[in-house]
Amino acid sequence: MTKQLNVFVENRPGRLESVTQSLLESNINVRAFAMQDRGDYGLLKLIVDKPQEAYLALSEKNFACALKDTLAISVPDKPGNLHKLTTVLAENDINVIDAYGFVLEPDHQGICCLEIENLKETNAPQIVSEAGFEVLSAEELSDL
């Protein structure tokens, strides 16, 4: 299972830079990120090479942050594969509450990072694997 670091960032100039500065000082490599506007604050979602160290580094700088369990799935970048993945999840009554993805070049390897409702209580990793997708470990995701 992979970890995503969620950071609440005040919505003002320079605040995002202070997050990246803290990660730089701790030699944390950001593998992927997404940010959502939530009014006065934004929610920054990070996939990093050392999630626990990143969490501690940001907590020490008084950032409100949390580590979330996620499912990182390798999905070949071809038409219909995302639909195949979402179909198998829906057919097994598995609820995706947050998701984002990216494609790695030159291998055209798609990566879907999914936050699953009650992930530990589901058999989502097994179902996804049986459908022919590769569920990435934290180390595999970090090494991409």
UniProtKB/TrEMBL annotation:
InterPro entries from the UniProt entry: ACT-like_dom_sf (IPR045865), ACT_dom (IPR002912), ACT_dom_pair (IPR045739)
Pfam family, one: ACT_8
Domain (ACT): residue spans on this chain: 70-144
Cited SUPFAM superfamilies: ACT-like
Protein name: ACT domain-containing protein
Source organism: Anaerohalosphaera lusitana
